[in-house]
Amino acid sequence: MARPSDPSKKKKIVTAAITTFAQKGYAGTRIAEVAEAAGIGKGTIYEYYRSKEDLFFATFEHLMSDTNTLMDKVSQSATGSASKRLVAMADAIITSWLANLDIFGLVLEFWSATAAAPGRKRFRAAFRSAYSELRRVVAELIRHGIEVEEFNAQIEPEKIASALIGSWDALLFQGWLDSGFDPLGASQSHMKVVLAGLRHPTTADEE
Amino acid sequence: MARPSDPSKKKKIVTAAITTFAQKGYAGTRIAEVAEAAGIGKGTIYEYYRSKEDLFFATFEHLMSDTNTLMDKVSQSATGSASKRLVAMADAIITSWLANLDIFGLVLEFWSATAAAPGRKRFRAAFRSAYSELRRVVAELIRHGIEVEEFNAQIEPEKIASALIGSWDALLFQGWLDSGFDPLGASQSHMKVVLAGLRHPTTADEE
Amino acid sequence: MARPSDPSKKKKIVTAAITTFAQKGYAGTRIAEVAEAAGIGKGTIYEYYRSKEDLFFATFEHLMSDTNTLMDKVSQSATGSASKRLVAMADAIITSWLANLDIFGLVLEFWSATAAAPGRKRFRAAFRSAYSELRRVVAELIRHGIEVEEFNAQIEPEKIASALIGSWDALLFQGWLDSGFDPLGASQSHMKVVLAGLRHPTTADEE
Amino acid sequence: MARPSDPSKKKKIVTAAITTFAQKGYAGTRIAEVAEAAGIGKGTIYEYYRSKEDLFFATFEHLMSDTNTLMDKVSQSATGSASKRLVAMADAIITSWLANLDIFGLVLEFWSATAAAPGRKRFRAAFRSAYSELRRVVAELIRHGIEVEEFNAQIEPEKIASALIGSWDALLFQGWLDSGFDPLGASQSHMKVVLAGLRHPTTADEE
DNA sequence: CATGAATGAGGCTTCATTCAT
DNA sequence: GATGAATGAAGCCTCATTCAT
Questions:
Q1: What is this structure's pTM?
Q2: A193, B155: Cβ pair inside 8 Å?
Q3: Which chain B residues have a beta carbon less than 8 Å from that of A186?
Q4: Which of A10, A132, B97, D126 is the most buried (most CB within 10 A)?
């Protein structure tokens, strides 16, 4: 009864699942399709994953961890001023996703998985902590910029961080919707403005 | 043969559909549930909508038009400097959605509907044009700010617009995920920085 | 509660039903279609007929009575030798149906209605008595031919009658299937042979 | 993805389908009933047949092929004069169907399937070619009878063939309607007359 | 009388999951 | 361990019939 755990096969399944879920969505994907894409039998998937839902969550975790890995790499390799590091981070994330825009649909599926009914609470929880962590990293960077007096002290690092991260996601979504849209360019333009804003004092409260 | 078209009943159905789809997601919703929520018979829904998918799209259009109405109201009523108007717009959108955060899950469903398979192309098309319009309106406002020399001339209105809009969506999403998160505060903080950035020249290209 | 009985409206409904059932079959016909074809409201049909099944049976009776009327006319107007009368009868029936081959599909529906389940026993009964009557008329004619020594006395009128009648139906069916097939020609050819056979003694029992 | 194709199971299903469709008609039959009659699960049927309609067509083909097999056997084994062979053929077909009169209702369903709407064109096509072939075989036999001067040269083999075949069908139908009716006797009586007619010259055209 | 909007029973079909091989 | 044939719960949708207007 103990399930097998050949990691190479698990990977093969998840990879196939990513492709298939991305193309057809969760509801539109049949387990048989994933199996076929993975070049294995339908029943075999159940040796490695308890259910379709479980497999879906596994693809989620897989992508999540890819993103985390990317983030770690970026934040470790980034050098220079806080501004440069922020821009590098934005560019890295967006560039990385642009290179895989074909599976961006999967992200949308994950987002919507945070909504629907029961058994999907883990998606919401995972997203929450992922965003939380991402905000922490970015906020840290901003805070650092303040400390070294690169950024103005009035700003609230956490809040800015959440908006920045959000803009990255949202620009990718717009790029996904509209192939004529350029998320990277938009992000860079936005980052320039934000960095300018971070350096200068915000005007005394309007009105 | 000719289907009935009592608009008040259509509205009753759509309203029920919004609630139900928002709570349980598209896949998790049974037509019978919507009917019950609308206080009518299951078959009656099919007098007004050809299919579940059609009803879903109708809820989409309904919310879309609500958002458009809101946008029109905001852009018409907004007065004062470009900055103030931008902030007003951001606040209006976010506040409006915060008041209906319980149906934000529906938006996620719509987002993911832009992905999956056939018969859903219209979602993508509708989103594309909606974003396009929203960008146009916001970019217009920014362009106006440049003309009156409130904003610095180097910025690219369309790109900034897309990032701003994106941040609103994405902050709402974070608020949806995490009830401790405050989208409005984050947006306001972000807007302040952006407005500061818009007023000041961006530094000479970083290397 | 008493049902109305405006006969002109009943006729309008049955006429519409004949056309529609003939084109789409019983199962493929919706009451709404019949109503539309009749130029009346869907509910009105139920003022005149208890159910779809009932309406179907009414179309059956209508056609049956048409056929009976035809038969009566033919058998009364026929003059001359028994042979001539038989041929006239065959020709009349086939010609009449050929002129309405577009509703022959309805006859097929009636035939199959003699099979399926309960509530359709009346179709079988009606057919049984209709065939019985038809056989009686044709057999009578043959018997008459025997009496006047036009036909050979060995033949069994009832059996020949049933085969003749059957051949008419079946040739029409073949014509219905294949527009290149000529039921009338085939019938005439067949009748000639049969009449020749009726006139001559059948050979002593073949071994 | 690839559907199973165990022929013995396909046969089991078709057999069950024949019984059930014959008893209750196409419309009156529920897939679940067929499954139960076949002793398998409802879903299993869909592993072997795409739809109810498909299964129905399969039963049609099955019976068609049975009939063809019978015809081949009869035409090959038949010896003796053309007359004897014709009678043998008639008797074989009728006897064979009489032995299975319980599923004759199915034939009626098939006949009516040549009418109704779309997706059923194949029934008509199959019938057309089946009748065409049957006519060919019978006409061939008649033509042979002419050649050996057993039959008179004036007759038209194709036309007589179509009428003979038709009479077999139609007599079976009458037997099906009325258990007191004897299709075999009627056919034999009819065949005798026809054979007598085939041997003797038809009278000069009856004005 | 006529209408057609409303209804819900009923059936086909899908597909995740199981389990014998 | 791997497989895929078998399964049946579940759900969309149709359409005959009703009945308030």
A1: 0.91
A2: yes
A3: 158-160, 162-163
A4: B97
